[in-house]
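Structure tokens please, single chain.
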Amino acid sequence: MPYDTDTSQNVANAPAGGGRPILDKPTRAALARWTLWLLLTAPAVGWIVGWWRDGSHDYAEHAVNPTGVLAGILVIVALLATPWRKLFRNRYGALWLVRNRRAIGVASFGYSVLHTWFYLLETGTASAILKEAQRFDMATGWMALLLFLPVALTSNNMSSRALGARWKSLQRWTYAASVIGLVHILSLNNWGNPWEAVIIVTPLIVLQVWRVRRNLSSG
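Here you go.
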């Protein structure tokens, strides 16, 4: 197998005595994917093991917010892929982000489910859950989760081939789910603490505005 054109990468992957890389390209790619999944799932494993050992209402209550915040951060990172690639092409990790946005998006949904699970444990009873679901802040959270569900379930090559052109349209539901999820975070505590949501979404807004201004100036 010929080396990549990136000389520094070839040197890093070559044995000390020269010659062929220790790991071929498909193996390195698989190792990188598994490493990414390990990093994405590590916090979830920690929370689940922590709850399994503790099992208390307080643990679930304290885990609700950070799991939701991490879900929001990951979906924003996934959405950054397209504008980042358009602005920087293959520089500054743009290609890596585009290649891995599906995994990051699926992980975001996974943390949304974990966030919901801890919320259910914290709330405790079906009657309390149904009663709270009538509130605007809770209703938007459920709506965002339901919109994310078909996106996450079809984030695979088999679904992409089966749905054809409809697959991209379905994946764009992520934008609607993200906006509703943002409203969910903003409306919590009677709209009393918007900064968490603002901090999460600011990178995407800044990048989109920068991209639009750059396109207008170049046009």
